[in-house]
């Protein structure tokens, strides 16, 4: 998984407490030929968000998570340590 070119794993340390990612899971998708959109999954439904303003709001959320998360190597190291402890 860590070698897939279209996926980046970044961990937000639990010690930070409340952070932007706690609002719930979402997937921000960008395309070469189409406008970006966001997919939000909920317990009993899901939603595709296409509004440019709303999609940009999720872009800000991604940037906030980027500022607080560990880099890819730190995140990978933690996952490897945790797997080794299983």
UniProtKB/TrEMBL annotation:
Domain DUF5753: where? 1-79
Question: Which Pfam families does the protein's record reference?
Answer: DUF5753
Task: Please identify the protein, giving its name as recorded.
Answer: DUF5753 domain-containing protein
Biological source species: Lentzea xinjiangensis
Which classification does the entry list for the species? Bacteria, Bacillati, Actinomycetota, Actinomycetes, Pseudonocardiales
């Amino acid at each position: 998984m860590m070698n897939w070119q279209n996926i980046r794993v970044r961990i937000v340390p639990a010690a930070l407490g409340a952070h932007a990612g706690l609002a719930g899971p979402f997937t921000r998708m960008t395309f070469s030929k189409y406008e970006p959109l966001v997919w939000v999954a909920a317990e009993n439904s899901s939603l595709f968000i296409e509004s440019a303003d709303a999609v940009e709001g999720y872009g800000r959320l991604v940037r906030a998570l980027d500022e607080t998360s560990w880099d890819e190597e730190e995140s990978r190291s933690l996952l490897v340590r945790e797997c080794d402890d299983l």
